[in-house]
Amino acid sequence: MKLFDAHFHIIDKAFPLVANNGFIPSEFSVNDYNTRLSEIAVIGGAVVSGSFQAFDQQYLKAALNKLGENFCGVANIPADIRDSEIRVLDQSGVRAVRFNLFRGGSAELKDMKYLSQKLHDEYGWHTELYLDSRNIPDLFGLITSLPAVSIDHLGLSSDGLASLYTLVELGVRVKASGFGRLDFNPIPAMQQILAIDPKALMFGTDLPSTRAKVPFSFKDLDLIVDNFSGSQQQAILFENAIEWYRMTIFDTQ
User: Fold this and answer.
1) Torsion sign over Cα 77, 127, 101, 66
2) Sequence ranges of the domains in the chain
């Protein structure tokens, strides 16, 4: 099984961590990540900045340097970041900006359109949103005004799935990640998303699954294998994400 892990976190306590609602996660290093997934062929992935990392990107640059050229980054970036800093992040392998509307730690909602448009126009970055899909109707106009968008963790809530499907019809991508955070069975939702847009779904382990009710396990991958065809598995597990993150995957063997 090959996997481009479209959503995971590296937590390195050598760099600043910020308590989020009193929570500071345990360390989860690049070595921890590699050990955890040693049983499968991870061909690359996307390191995603968490709320507890706020705007510090030194950890992200260090993680990408250790992980290697098949990995990219998703950064929390302040609205007033200097162009020179963006260039350094881009050269380090960052490919997207994240707005964490669920837990905070990212730029504010009022800055989303300006920052997303600038980063897309000048660097080709897309925008990633961590939100509860029940809030999509209130954000619909803003989300659909952005140039390229993905949504984390299948939108979290069953009550918002209809709104999520509407966004998929308009070209929004969706992370099939964080199954232990959901209040619904992910498989029917994933089947519906694939029926709308075969390129929309991208699987991520969400490791180390901080604050998830049920952490990632290989059973999550078994769900993909048991419920989707071979070509669908390839799209979900690596093809869609490689295209979305504009990655060239180099042979590491």
Assistant:
1) negative
2) 2-244
What amino acid is encoded at 111 in this protein? D
Q: What is the pLDDT of residue 19?
A: 87
Q: How confident is the model at residue 129 (pLDDT cuts 50, 70, 90)?
A: very high
Kindly tell me if the per-residue pLDDT of 253 is higher than 70. Answer: no
CATH 3.20.20.140, domain 2-244, yes or no: yes
Concatenated DSSP letters of 96-111: EEEEETTT--S--GGG
Cα 217 to Cα 30, 96, 223, distances in angstroms? 18, 26, 11
Give the whole-angstrom CA distance, residue 240 versus residue 234.
8
Whether residue 214 contacts residue 240, with contact meaning beta carbons closer than 8 Å, is answered with: no
Query: Which amino acid does the sequence have at 228?
Result: F
Task: Give the Å distances, CA to CA, from 30 to 8, 67, 172, 233.
Answer: 11, 7, 30, 26
pLDDT in tens, 157-208: 999 999 999 999 999 999 999 999 999 999 999 999 999 999 999 999 999 9
pLDDT band at 109 (very low <50, low <70, confident <90, very high): confident
Amino acid making up residue 97: V
Average pLDDT along the chain: 95
Q: What is the pTM of this model?
A: 0.96
For residue 206, the tally of other CB atoms under 10 A from its CB is 26
Token digits of residue 123: 């660097």
For residue 44, the cross-strand partners are 4
C-alpha angle 126-132-135 in degrees, rounded to nearest 5 = 95
Sequence-distant (6+) residues with CB within 8 A of 202 are 4, 6, 7, 150, 173, 174, 175, 176, 236, 240, 241, 244
